[in-house]
Automatic annotation (TrEMBL):
Gene name linked to the record: pheA
E.C. no: 4.2.1.51, 5.4.99.5
Keywords: Amino-acid biosynthesis, Aromatic amino acid biosynthesis, Cytoplasm, Isomerase, Lyase, Multifunctional enzyme, Phenylalanine biosynthesis
ACT domain boundaries: 281-358
UniProt-recorded name of the protein: Bifunctional chorismate mutase/prephenate dehydratase
Organism whose genome encodes this protein: Limnobacter thiooxidans
Amino acid sequence: MSTPDINAELLKFRDQIDSIDQQMLALLNKRASLAQSIGHVKAKTDAPVMRPEREAQVLDKLNAANTGPLNAQHIHTLFKEIMSACRSLEREVHVAFLGPLGTYSEQAVWSFFGHCVQAEPVETIEEAFRQLQAQQVDFAVVPVENSAEGSVARTLDALVESTALVCGEVQLPIHHQLLCQTGTLEGIQKICAHPQALAQCRNWLAQYAPNIQQETVASNGVAAKMASEDNSVGAIAGQAAREHYGLKAFQEHIQDDAHNTTRFLVLGNQVTGPSGQDKTSLVASVPNQPGAVYKMLEPFNAENVSMTRLESRPARNGRWEYYFFIDLQGHQSEPAVTKALDQLKKNASFLKVLGSYPAAQRN
């Protein structure tokens, strides 16, 4: 086929795409107008501008109706941004996250909310909780556990003490890079990162940088910022930090576990309704006596409620007592979960339901 014939064929397809784009634009603006109307109705009762369960249901329906060639991830990415843009026309949503810019926590914000929110970096996990509790922000995003290194203790401790409710989760694949100004290890005197990031890359560091000092800092974003200001500093961080601070990668994918994933919790001040595929998180404590832990867990077995996570943490009261952090499949409003929780209240010396929310991994 000659070049003129190819160009004519391409022009035919491009004309169709242009026509579809115009139709999509009109429909998107119609959707945005409806979102504005919803915002006016919500304003009458001061209802939350974002309902995580509603957005999860929208995505579930779209995925069920999707026949391709776009896959589920394409649909998620496209419609998250559409919903984010429409939501911003109701009211701007403010989200606190563990900063500075360029952290995985920031990536988790974009993944859950889309880019049409006001993301506000804070210096500590505790500060994210404080701003949420003081209603300085609408939501907060904090790391809670990593598939390789386990739980984030500061988040667990804050969950016990705070009134914040879990209303969502993000499971983010972690791809660490060794970043610096030059892209080589020549002249690098220390490598900085969050303690968990250093631990997640310990084998790589032992092989490729055994003689370089390692230094823990508050976050990988902080490490990247340090590297951008000092050519003797290397940082372990992700692609977002690399782009934000203008750094070069000595090597990508340096994490020891190729499937390394961090789970983030989305916290708010609102109760989240059932989406159809939910989790419930809670923390409990039981008397220090024989069989107490068995009695705590037995109601879940009796009601056929699946427990997806169980972890203990010292209660820090000096009496060798423990808090048990538990994740369940199902929403706390579901009859089986409700019955199990009611029975648990009778057996536990302390019980706090942290929230029910749409599960990140959905069928």
